[in-house]
Backbone:
């Protein structure tokens, strides 16, 4: 009764999408890549506005990466080599502008791949992705859903990697038994809260209070810190607070006399935090984003090529600007380049197939699995090891790599429980 | 519990100080010129960036940078008065729209000049005054409280005890009658704009080492300032100060004892209740000023 393709899981919806994508593609400029032609990659992220810190530094990192790749001969597709060029579009973290940008990058600039921050801008872009079949990446896997098979989260599996920091903390400082947490009440903060709650529960660390949520527009953190410290916790967890929050919160913790453990997703510009507090106060601060001059990133299993050299060049060009996203978009490009060279093509469907071949991929921090069916409804998140970073003597040091899949195998039910409680499972999000 | 209450009270006193400096400036501009200055949050931001440029980047002493912030932002206010508000004196809606345009220009200039990321401002001092072992107030925050008390007292004295102050109040109450008495409406508008903008710049400059300085930091403070002037009574300086204190204490206590999101809802609810019970605000009258 049904065509064979439909019987074997090729749904009517997929059929319609594919047909639409094919029809749309027919109207696009020629897909063939001429010998020596530059390959254009779209960079669709906030470059201005309040969220620019999650986009602009990543573009800087990409340009350094492209210069290096181009100087080494470019990307090799079949028998010809091609330079890579980034075409940036500032979406100002606005879904409508992101949609316009995606259309422009694909139709006018002829890009072969589009990197995004994602988050609030993804719903604007999703129809374009579905219509064109273009390959997109996001830094936020909460954007993933079975609806869009060409959206990947190949680097930052936020917030699942946060479990590794708590796991390391519990193993290395077992005397710390109580915690409190604060977070901004937004799309980045809430799934992180659920993840930290799961991680603390798995580690046997008791939450002394409900997570304290604050408005993202908050500028004065003294009342929040007063509340956090009112129960004399062993651990203060700063969730995935942005730098604009982490810095004043730490300063307040210092000024209100806190002397315990701090754990956070990020500690961008931690040297400034040390200057505002003290080296002793920041000693032992745990977070998840290393400086790439760390010797641990020279290990054979690390797939980000010449991490130390990349860090040195970045700091030379943008002194003091290294942050969590400085390397992430470049790491995605490493993955894309390998897949394109393996596929012998830069076309999105070929690259996607090569990238996901065998269900394995080369994540920046080591070989990893394409994962996520339970959490995101689709195995489009590349998950493996993630570093745990600790500030020691004023410098971020990788203390080890922890396996996210291993943690999930043991405690996945806790994560699903807390994610569900905060309406953060993929099938709960509107 | 006593320590928690006392600490929260000190936190609220600090919040009330910088909010009142901003709100009083906004009220002064509205009272004298009849213009809702949407760029007031960006004037606060500009004050912070003066401290970044002078104190953080060029090692100018902090209090010199703060005074420079007050004067620089006051001059920005004069430019706004001359270029935007004076030509639109009979068109309050035009003034409002012009101020939104100026807001965007200031934000763009900050991005061009300093970039999109938050700026590092070295701490003025790490000294903390501790009471009863657990109640603390950083000296840098104490400076903000002292500066607010001194400047607001000085403004009160200026308005109530000097000829320029009387002229300002007369212009606010009835511009035509004031003009008939020989008071220059243009001159009083310039004075109001310099003081109003300068106070926002002063608040931004004083708090620069205590907050994250970035081009979009004006959003939060302008929303708070609008709530405060509506609660206090649009056009009432006393109302702005009292409402700043009320708002700061309510917001800070709700944040500490419940959470920050609920505190925002409570702040807005406070405004709604005042609008329903006394639409002119706590100290407002049916007439402007």
Residues:
């Amino acid at each position: 009764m049904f065509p064979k393709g439909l019987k074997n899981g090729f749904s009517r919806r997929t059929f319609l999408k594919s047909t639409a994508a094919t029809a749309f593609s027919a109207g696009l400029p020629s897909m063939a890549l001429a010998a020596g032609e530059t390959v254009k990659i779209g960079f669709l992220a906030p470059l201005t506005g309040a969220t620019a810190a999650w986009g602009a530094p990543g573009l800087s990192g990409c340009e350094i990466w492209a210069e290096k790749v181009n100087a080494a001969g470019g990307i090799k597709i079949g028998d010809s080599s091609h330079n890579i060029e980034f075409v940036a579009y500032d979406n100002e973290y606005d879904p409508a502008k992101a949609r316009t940008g995606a259309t422009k990058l694909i139709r006018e600039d002829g890009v072969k791949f589009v990197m995004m921050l994602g988050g609030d801008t993804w719903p604007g872009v999703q129809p374009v992705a579905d219509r064109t079949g273009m390959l997109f990446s996001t830094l936020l896997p909460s954007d993933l859903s079975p609806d869009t098979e060409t959206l990947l989260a190949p680097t930052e599996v936020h917030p699942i990697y946060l479990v590794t920091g708590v796991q390391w903390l519990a193993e290395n400082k077992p005397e710390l038994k109580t915690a409190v947490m604060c977070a901004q009440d937004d799309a980045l903060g809430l799934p992180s809260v659920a993840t930290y709650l799961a991680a603390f529960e798995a580690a046997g660390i008791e939450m002394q209070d409900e997570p304290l949520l604050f408005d993202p527009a908050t500028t004065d953190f003294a009342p929040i810190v007063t509340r956090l410290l009112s129960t004399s916790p062993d651990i203060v967890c700063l969730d995935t607070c942005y730098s604009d929050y982490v810095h004043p919160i730490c300063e307040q913790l210092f000024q209100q006399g806190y002397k315990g453990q701090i754990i956070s997703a990020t500690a961008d510009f931690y040297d400034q935090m040390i200057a505002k507090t003290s080296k002793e106060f920041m000693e032992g601060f745990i977070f998840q984003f290393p400086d790439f001059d760390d010797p641990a990133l020279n290990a054979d299993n690390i797939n980000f090529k010449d991490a130390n050299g990349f860090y040195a060049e970045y700091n030379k060009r943008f002194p003091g600007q290294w942050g969590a996203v400085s390397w992430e978009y470049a790491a995605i490009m490493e993955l894309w380049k390998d897949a394109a060279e393996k596929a012998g093509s830069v076309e999105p469907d070929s690259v996607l197939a090569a990238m996901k071949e065998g269900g394995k991929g080369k994540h920046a921090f080591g070989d990893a699995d394409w994962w996520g069916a339970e959490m995101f409804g689709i195995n489009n998140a590349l998950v493996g090891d993630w570093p745990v970073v600790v500030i020691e003597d004023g410098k971020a040091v990788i203390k080890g790599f922890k396996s996210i899949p291993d943690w999930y195998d043991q405690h996945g039910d806790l994560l699903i429980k807390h994610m569900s409680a905060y309406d953060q499972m993929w099938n709960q999000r509107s | 519990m006593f320590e928690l209450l006392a600490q929260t009270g000190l936190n609220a006193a600090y919040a009330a100080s910088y909010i009142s400096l901003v709100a009083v400036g906004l009220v002064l501009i509205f009272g004298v010129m009849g213009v809702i200055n949407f760029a007031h949050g960006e004037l606060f931001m500009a004050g912070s960036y003066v401290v970044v440029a002078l104190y953080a980047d060029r090692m100018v002493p902090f209090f010199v940078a703060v005074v420079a912030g007050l004067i620089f932002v006051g001059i920005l206010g004069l430019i706004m008065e001359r270029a935007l508000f004076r030509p639109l004196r009979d068109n309050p809606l035009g003034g409002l729209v012009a101020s939104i345009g100026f807001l965007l220009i200031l934000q763009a200039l900050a991005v061009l000049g300093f970039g999109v990321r938050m700026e590092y401002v070295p701490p003025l001092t790490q000294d903390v005054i501790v009471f009863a072992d657990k109640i603390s107030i950083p000296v840098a925050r104490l400076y903000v409280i002292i500066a607010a008390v001194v400047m607001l007292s000085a403004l009160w004295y200026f308005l109530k005890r000097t000829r320029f102050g009387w002229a300002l109040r007369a212009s606010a109450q009835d511009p035509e009658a004031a003009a008939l008495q020989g008071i220059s409406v243009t001159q009083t508008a310039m004075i109001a704009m310099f003081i109003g903008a300068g106070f926002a710049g002063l608040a931004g400059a004083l708090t620069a080492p205590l907050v994250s300085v970035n081009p979009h930091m004006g959003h939060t403070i302008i929303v708070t300032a609008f709530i405060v002037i509506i609660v206090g009574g649009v056009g009432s300086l006393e109302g702005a100060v009292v409402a700043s204190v009320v708002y700061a204490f309510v917001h800070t206590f709700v944040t500490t004892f419940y959470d920050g999101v609920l505190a925002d809802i409570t702040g807005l609810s406070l405004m709604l209740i005042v609008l329903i019970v006394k639409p002119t605000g706590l100290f407002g009258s049916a007439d402007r000023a």
